[in-house]
Amino acid sequence: MSELESCGEFRFSHEVRAHPLAEVMREINRLQVVIAQRVAPPDDGDVEAHLAYWSVVLGISRTEVNKYMEIGYMLGRMPQLAEMCRERGHLSMKHLTMLGKHTRPVVDEKVDAVESGLVDVVKPRRDGEALRGVRAMATRVQRVIGECAPEVRPRDVDVAGLHTDRVLARNVEATVDAAIDAAAYQVEKDGESAEDPAESPEVQEVQAAALDYFGDRMTAKEFIAVDEHGDAGVTTLTTVLERHHAVEALAIIDAVAKQMKVSRAAAFMHALRGTCEVEVNLELFRVLSLGEDGEPENTPVWLAGAGWLSTLVAESWLKRVSTLRVLGDSAVEGYRPSESQRAFVRARDGVCSFPGCDIPAEKCDIDHIVEFDHSLSGGERQMEGATHTDNLHCLCRRHHNLKTAGIWRVVRGDDGTEAWTFLSCDEGPFAHSDKEHTGHGRYTFASQTEKKTAALAEHNEKRRKLHDSLRSLVDKVRRDLEKERAVDGVDCESEGDGKNRGDSDGE
């Protein structure tokens, strides 16, 4: 019987003692809980004094002490969660910090309901599942608190990592504009005079509520900040754009840079001046679904690189669609997946398929899960391993290299679930390997250091050649200037002598 089965409940992958360091990390997590419970804030003590005291005792900053305080406060109010963390040690300090921060405002009357929901959030849904990242878990925590204690639902700013609630602000502005346009159209259609649509009570109410919520941030969704660097001769332009606008802008700049073989900054200037011509295609995804009436439903739209789009933003993008493709599971002969297959796999996976990795699918390689059959027969490659989307997944380059090296292995189930296993290596006294390079994309510390040294040497050699060539050019310019001055001096002297002789003859 495996350790998972003997536990009687589901466990995360790092709770299975496949590696001794996994238990070390869990013990560290348990000790973090011990510290947090000891540093828990006093009921009536001075917080500043408490922070100062523990900062000195533990040798950490006040900010770090405050994190422990919030975690300790949470664990003191949620005994079931505290017991789970002490026993299993499965949550990292970052996970605990996020939980402590988001649960702190919950009033005592609603703590039990919130705790019940959080216990489900911090448990795996199946054996061997990889622990979710902090941001992914924060989204679920936000949902639980939003249902149990909606008045203290964590802000999108804190969960999604945005500088402002730009998504909400964008939707407010788009909705107001749509309402005004609709009202104006209705007035024009009916031929009736009416008050300015922008001054209708509904629009005024939304705008007043938005101003009250956002304040100055309402006007800061998109902007360009200019920072002059004095005598440095450069200026920093900080551009803040909505995600879908940024995706489009970067796609254009990168396309110009690739076509003209220039830097992004140079490509940006070419795009502004109109001195280039490129064509950029962005991918929009939508799930096809029929409603009860048999008509297609208005399902959400996903923009690669930006994520889900609001209804109004999606409509503006859909008006620009030039090509439609119906994507689904498919097979093609040969090793390389078709463009339709690539688009389908990216839309299906969303991110790198390696447990815990959140590299976006559009930045990943499309990898064959079961290696394609490249065996030779009669001098021709066999097509027996026809490329099927069921055998494809997204992997970032780093995890693709690890899989290719055989360090990690993966099996995909019929339901699309992937099971990853780690290949351990002998490390005892009889283990021996003459290879410093331990696999594609993997290096020992010594070989990695050697590689870094070589790269730095190459960089400095290029730098030396550049300086030498510049020095030679400067010397040439100086010589040319000296020759020019010498010639000018001779000419001036000759003209002067002629003038003096002429004057002398005239006298």
UniProtKB/TrEMBL annotation:
Which domain of life does this protein belong to?
Bacteria
Q: Which N-terminal residues, if any, form the signal peptide?
A: none
Matching InterPro entries, A to Z?
Answer: HNH_nuc
The GO molecular function terms of this record are:
endonuclease activity
- Coiled-coil regions listed: none
Q: Which UniProt keywords apply?
A: Endonuclease, Hydrolase, Nuclease
Q: Where is this region: Disordered?
A: 484-507
Claim: Hydrolase is one of the keywords in the record: yes
**Where in the numbering of this chain does the HNH nuclease domain appear?**
340-401
Name the record gives this protein: HNH endonuclease signature motif containing protein
- CDD domains in UniProt: HNHc (cd00085)
Spell out the Basic and acidic residues composition-biased ranges.
Answer: 496-507
